[in-house]
Amino acid sequence: MTSHDRPTTDAEGGPDAPAGPTPEPGDRTDADNRQVTEAALFEAFGGVRGMVETVVPGLLFVTIFTINKDLHTSAIAALAVALVLAAVRLVRRDTVKHAFSGVFGVVFGVVFAMMTGNAKDFYLPGMLYTLGLSLAYMITTAAGVPLIGLILGPVFKENLSWRTRNPGRKKAYAKASWAWGLILFAKCAILFPLYWWADTTQLGWILIALKIPPFLLAVYLTWVFLAKAPPPIDVFAEMEAKEQAEKEAEERRRGEREVLDGVAGDLYQGMASEVAAEAADERPRRARHRR
User: Fold this and answer.
1) 125 and 141 in contact (C-beta within 8 Å)?
2) Closest CA to 56 of 16, 111, 3, 97
3) What's the CA gap between 24 and 6, in Å, rounded?
4) Which of 190, 189, 180 is nearest to 138 (CA)?
5) Percent helix, strand, coil in the chain (nearest 5)?
6) d(CA 66, CA 58)
7) pTM higher than 0.85 for the full model?
8) Which residue from 139, 201, 223, 252 has the least number of CB within 10 angstroms?
9) pLDDT of 22-57, one tens digit each?
10) In whole angstroms, what is the distance from residue 22 CA to residue 257 CA?
C-alpha cells in the first residue's frame, strides 16, 4: 500500500514543492499551463523524496529476507525505517502525508505476514490496495466523475468546476483516470500470479522493480493530458472576487445611505429653522392683533 499508487490532495507546500506564484487562469499561456500542471503534480505525488520514502521500506524488507530468510528481522527493519522517515518529516516540520502512508502500508504488511507466517503476505495488502484503486479509477471514470479530477481538483483550486464549466478539462481528467486505472491493473496482472507461483524474494524484487516505472508513466500521461487541456477555473479566486465585490457594493450602499441621511438631516434642519423663524414672526403679529 503505497502513497504513489494514489495522488494526495493536500495543497500544503513542502520542501519538495516547486516555488513560485501561480498565474491567474485568464493570463496563462501554454507554457504557463504546463508549468502550473507540473507544479501541481509534483506537489500531489510527492516528488523524488516521496518516491524514496515509498520504495525504501519494501526494498529493505526484501534485501534482508533475501540474505537471511528471517521474516521477523525483515519486517522489523522495514517498519523501523518507515518510522524513521516519518519522524524526520515531523522533526523538520515537512508535509508528512507520503511518509505516513508508507508507514501504514508497512504496518499492514507486517501484521499480515506475522499473522500468517508467510513472508509473501507482507506485500499482499499493498497489492490488494492497488487492485482496488485501479478499479476505482476505471469505475468512477465510466460513471462520469473521474477519480483523478476529484483528487487533483483541490490542488488546482478548481474543486469540481471542471464537471460542468470546463468540459475540455473533464475530458483530460477522464483520459488520465483511464491511464491510471489501466496501468495499475496491468501491474496487478503481473504481481498476483507471482504471489501464487513465485517465492518471496522473486516477488519482492519484481515488486520493487515495478514500484516506480508504472507510477512515472501514469504521472507523465496525466501531465500530457492536463497540459493540453484548458486551464483550470480558480473557484477560490472567484469566491474571493465575489466577496470583495459584495463588500465594495455594501460600502457603496453605506456611503449612499450616509449621504442621503446627511441630505435629509440638512433638509430637516432647514425646515426646522424656517418653521422657527415663521413662528418668531408670527408672535409679534398676534401680540399687535390682541392690542
Assistant:
1) no
2) 3
3) 27
4) 180
5) 80, 0, 20
6) 12
7) no
8) 252
9) 444 444 556 666 777 777 777 666 667 777 778 888
10) 40
